[in-house]
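Handout, section B. The chain below has 284 residues.
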Amino acid sequence: MNNNIFPCILFNGDAGKSADFYCKIFGGKITADTQIVINIELFGQTIMLLNGPEKEKNPSVSFMVICDTEDEVQRYWDQLKDGGTALMDLGTYPWSKKYGWIRDRYGVTWQLFLGEKASDQKLVPTLMFIHENNGKAADAMKFYTRIFPNSAIGNISKYMDGGESGENPEHIMHAHFTINGYSMFCMDNSYDHQFDFNEGISMVVMTDSQEETDYFWNSLSGEGGSEEVCGWVKDQYGLSWQIFPRQSMRLISDPDKDKVNKVIQAIMKMKNIIIKDLEEAYNS
């Protein structure tokens, strides 16, 4: 399973509780546990849970869980609705015999779907292109697959007419694409939702060198994107990415808290992560 790319969810001190919650529901496990970062593995896939200044999470980025049986859908739904809110009631829809969209107690939204997987990946981040991004899902897939190696655009379903749905027939109802072998879904939506992409849910790209770090940083922040701090960028659609060298993750996982604190302080002063500067801080 490709764990070079994975989602990060921002929490206001609740990362530990949410990690236990998700691992219990989906049969996952905690693979890294620090004061700031907790990594969990669900269905063999990494999700980073980050304690920091919370941004309200919303359905512009949701998680599709592709289930094998109706009982599996029901089992996840029953647990997620404890403190959660249904966005689309669990039921039968044209695209699935059993499907529901739910916001859990922590504000994360899940689409539970009975159907065939587009790849070997069971949990798939799903991007909703709304407001000024509505109609740009196709362009976004081209943008992402151009930047990342081992990428491709898969099946695309468009809205068939502008009737009751009110959607442009050329806009994307559902599409699958892969970036460096990692599956994602996307869709256009014309509804005037009171939310959009923000830092609440971002995508992490783990890199192996300064050259690779610079490449993804420049590529994703360019063409109308923006450079943020601490390795974060926003692309031209407003989706947040974290470009992190593996070496930096090793340094902040060191058992020596003083060394870790020096590294974190150095990261806080950076935009793009400079590996040699972190190593100097670590060894200072």
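Note. DSSP finds seven helices and 16 strands in the chain. Compare this with the example in section A.
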